[in-house]
Amino acid sequence: MSKLYLPSKEWKRSPYPASRPAAQSGWRRKLLRKHSGLILMFLPGFLLFLLFSYVPMYGILLAFKQFRIVDGIWNSPWAGLEHFQRLFTGEDFLLALKNTLVIASLKLVFTFPAPIVLAILLNEVRQAAFRRIVQTVSYLPHFFSWVILAGILFSFLGSEGGFNQMLRFIGLQPADWMLDPDSFYPIIVISTIWQSIGWGSIIYFAALSSIDPTLYEAAVADGAGRWKQIAHITIPSLMPTIIIMFLLYIGHFLTVGFDQIYNLTTPTNSSRADILDTYVLRHLLTMDYELGAAAGIFSSLVGLVLVVGCNGLVKLYDKDQGLW
């Protein structure tokens, strides 16, 4: 008579039953089928992000290589920091860096607060119809490309444009503002505000709508006017949103709007319009890929340092704020 097989104690104590892998895989398949629609919607964006944001990172090697097309990026000889030395000693790079810093600083001072101001003003408007009209008019320029907006600016600010016609009407001397180098920075700032103020105010206006209205009722009961309500309720309630948006903005500090500046550049204002992005483009067109890659790495590192530094300062002020 054959003996019955009894499983060992070790087998009985095993925490991983043989049926668990099959159950887990079945659970995963069920989850994939349940959310297949969401996954299909997610994949195109993910693939585009992967293709245009992560795959190009391979090109960082160009800044440290003596690139030869026949050898490819990986097999080209190493050049060390030679291209960075060329970068920081070149007069054209220093001019582009100076213009970039000036434009970036002007945009930070004037264009970053503009959507905040508009959102606060719209929040104080009690007529819903008027508020919707202002929002529509201010949002509209965001949906036009800078090619179209630049054409409008050239027509309006040209020698025979509408702005000069108004100056002649009131007895002032007209000028071709688009060709004047001294007018380039103000035009950049004003056109940026015009294009982005409405769209940028959406987030702040949404944050304002979440403020508890009883705070304003209590302020009115205490005799606070509109300005005091804005100063002591509205702005403090907006600060978390402002801090997050500032940290996101400062990461692109040296990205001052290539498409805008490229379309507004003329031969006479090029000394003010040459920025880091146009510097990179110029060297890419002349097949000096290494110097263009070095300039791109420099711009990215500056943005990284600014984000980390500003986030650290914010955390010193309030540990609950910041990106991480």
From TrEMBL:
- Biological process terms in GO annotation: transmembrane transport
SUPFAM superfamilies in the cross-refs: MetI-like
Residues covered by the ABC transmembrane type-1 domain = 97-310
Q: Where is this protein primarily located?
A: membrane
PROSITE patterns documented for this protein = ABC_TM1
Q: Where are the transmembrane segments?
A: 38-64, 101-122, 143-163, 183-209, 230-250, 291-314
Q: How does it sit in the membrane?
A: Multi-pass membrane protein
| Presence of keyword Disulfide bond | no
Say which family it is in. Answer: Belongs to the binding-protein-dependent transport system permease family.
- Protein name listed in UniProt: ABC transporter permease subunit
